[in-house]
Design a protein that fits this description.
The chain has 241 residues and is α/β, with parallel strands linked by helices. The chain has two domains: 123 residues, 3-Layer(aba) Sandwich (Rossmann fold), CATH 3.40.50; 90 residues, Arc Repressor Mutant, subunit A (Orthogonal Bundle), CATH 1.10.10.10. 38% of the residues lie in helices and 19% in strands. It contains eight helices and eleven strands. A five-stranded parallel beta sheet has the order 2-1-3-4-5, with helices on both faces. Strands 6-7-8 form a three-stranded antiparallel beta sheet, covered by helices on one side.
């Protein structure tokens, strides 16, 4: 008889001050095989994440982060977390206007869900983001001598130096690097980053590209090499003109 080892239980951190919502989300995640840890305010969440960041068994696979939290709000928490971790983050927000959504993405969030939401949809989003962040996208990447991509660890390096990318930024750069000089339309980039086919504004891609450029500019003397093609999308030029 062949022994089948079940996959390890992944931990989801729920940062939500509404106890009823937190319990509902936790129950649905438990039904789908996830472990959960819940905290009710942003400062406490940040302390917990900093304390566990060097303990892989205790650090979450994904964070569900409410925007409206007492004290330190979700936007501030997300920005602080991105200073030391690329853990996938889904923002939970009652703010339905696009500006707030894009602000969440601009500071490093990977996805957002608007309240009120279906717990089934939320669990589906969690699973989809985990698949993508754990290497679910299969893209043949053309090797570049100055860049190294670690698919398993979702990390990118420029000449051995770590580019601190979020999972979404990593997938975006991976796709651009796969065909240097090729222009990727915004629709193609959206399909690669959001495979659940929901309606996401093209401006979300612009927001991710802006963050990716900024991080690459900080390390690479030639600049990011990510060029805008007006009315179409973006391409990666190994040697920017």
């Amino acid at each position: 008889m062949i022994a089948i080892t079940p996959p390890p239980t992944r931990l989801i951190l729920i940062v939500e001050d509404d106890a009823k919502i937190a319990d509902m989300v936790a129950n649905y995640l438990h039904m789908h095989g996830f472990a959960t840890h819940t905290v009710g305010d942003g400062a406490q969440a940040l302390v917990w994440l900093r304390r566990t960041k060097d303990v892989p068994a205790a650090f979450p696979a994904l964070v569900l982060l409410d925007v409206m939290l007492p004290g330190l709000d979700g936007m501030a928490v997300c920005q602080a977390v991105r200073a030391f971790s690329a853990v996938p983050i889904i923002m939970l927000t009652a703010r339905i206007d696009e500006v707030d959504r894009l602000l969440g993405l601009d500071i490093g969030a990977d996805d957002y869900v608007c309240k009120p939401f279906s717990p089934r949809e939320l669990v589906a989003r969690v699973k989809a983001l985990l698949r993508r962040s754990e290497g679910g996208l299969a893209i043949g990447v053309a090797a570049s001598p100055e860049f190294t991509l670690d698919d398993e660890g979702q990390r990118a390096f420029w000449q051995g130096q770590l580019l601190p990318l979020t999972p979404v930024e990593f997938r975006l750069f991976r796709l651009l690097l796969s065909r240097p000089g090729h222009v990727f339309a915004r629709a193609r980039l959206l399909d690669a980053l959001h495979q659940d086919f929901r309606d996401v504004s093209d401006r979300a891609i612009d927001s991710h590209v802006k963050n990716l450029r900024r991080k690459m500019d900080q390390l690479r003397p030639l600049g990011s090499g990510i060029a805008s093609v007006y009315g179409v999308g973006y391409r990666f030029d190994p040697e920017p003109l």
